[in-house]
């Protein structure tokens, strides 16, 4: 079955070199970025899963954490140009790219959404993180970004980062909490009410939300509980068909998109096979499985 992997990562070489100049210990702090398939597209092509095209976004290394707004925006611009060229040069394996933003330069972030992305159809949206500059994604300072996303009908990919205030961050559980909390904050800020066409794709199958559906439905006001189901989610659970079944039950087939976190999770190429097997095991029709693997993405991102 043809698949579009909506959440696959890269750390392209020119951008990576610049980030190492800002933080020489970056690879020690984030050991997963040492995977060469993130950087070397020849190696990536050699292990690409058959019948799959990826939508690529940068790993969670953001210039805004190291530089003032003007310089961060310049580096982000260079990173997005490198991403664009990589997609153009590898259209047989990449279906599109996801732009980076510097959230310490909101006017430039808005410019990317309103000008750079419409000018380059290979770039399908922007990546946001659960926290920026130590602040919640729902902070009022970032609202112009959401206004621009809604105005231009541009999707956003939501990826977790650690909350530096916490002493017990870990990649197994903490990121799922961070995703869930960011979703709650966006819902409680009434973003889906203010921007009805807002499209946010959440990593890791919507994190904790499917497994706490009862608490969401009985504790939140009815409108906010309904808004929780307006997120789109990927399937990046490293397999686990039963958990994925709860995810589909909560969000609905039309809001679940094939995504693997490739090439991370299972070295060297990622968890495409594990996740494909988990989808195959779901008690769904072949038409519904095809929607998850391919058709939902083509419709959401206009890839047809």
TrEMBL record:
Residues 12-303 form the Amidohydrolase-related domain. InterPro entries: ACMSD (IPR032465), Amidohydro-rel (IPR006680), Metal_Hydrolase (IPR032466). One of its GO terms (molecular function) is hydrolase activity. Keywords: Hydrolase, Lyase. It comes from the Bacteria. Coiled coil: none annotated. Signal peptide: none annotated. PANTHER family: 2-AMINO-3-CARBOXYLMUCONATE-6-SEMIALDEHYDE DECARBOXYLASE, ISO-OROTATE DECARBOXYLASE (EUROFUNG). This is TIM-barrel fold metal-dependent hydrolase. It comes from Streptococcus saliviloxodontae.
């Amino acid at each position: 079955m043809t698949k579009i992997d909506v959440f696959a990562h890269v750390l392209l070489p020119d951008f990576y070199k610049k980030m190492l100049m800002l933080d020489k210990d970056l690879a020690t702090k984030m050991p997963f970025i040492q995977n060469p398939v993130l950087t070397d597209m020849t190696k990536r092509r050699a292990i690409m899963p058959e019948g799959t095209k990826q939508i690529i976004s940068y790993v969670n290394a953001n210039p805004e954490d190291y530089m003032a707004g003007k310089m961060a925006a310049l580096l982000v611009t260079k990173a997005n140009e490198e991403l664009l060229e990589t997609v153009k040069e590898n259209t047989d394996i990449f279906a599109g790219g996801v732009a980076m933003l510097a959230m310490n330069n909101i006017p430039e972030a808005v410019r990317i959404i309103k000008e750079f992305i419409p000018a380059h159809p290979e770039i399908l949206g922007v990546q946001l993180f659960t926290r920026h500059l130590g602040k919640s994604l729902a902070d009022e300072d970032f609202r112009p970004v959401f206004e621009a996303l809604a105005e231009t009908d541009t999707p956003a990919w939501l990826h977790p980062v650690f909350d530096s205030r916490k002493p017990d961050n870990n990649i197994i559980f903490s990121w799922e909490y961070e995703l869930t909390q960011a979703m709650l904050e966006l819902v409680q800020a009434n973003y889906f009410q203010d921007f009805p066409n807002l499209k946010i794709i959440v990593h890791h199958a919507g994190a904790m939300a499917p497994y706490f559906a009862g608490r969401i439905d009985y504790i939140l006001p009815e409108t906010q509980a309904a808004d929780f189901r307006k997120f789109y989610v990927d399937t990046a659970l490293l397999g686990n068909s039963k958990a994925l079944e709860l995810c589909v039950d909560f969000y609905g087939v039309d809001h679940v998109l094939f995504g693997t976190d490739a090439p991370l999770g299972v070295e060297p190429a990622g968890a495409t096979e594990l996740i494909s097997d988990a989808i195959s095991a779901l008690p769904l029709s072949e038409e519904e499985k095809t929607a998850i693997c391919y058709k939902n993405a083509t419709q959401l991102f206009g890839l047809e």
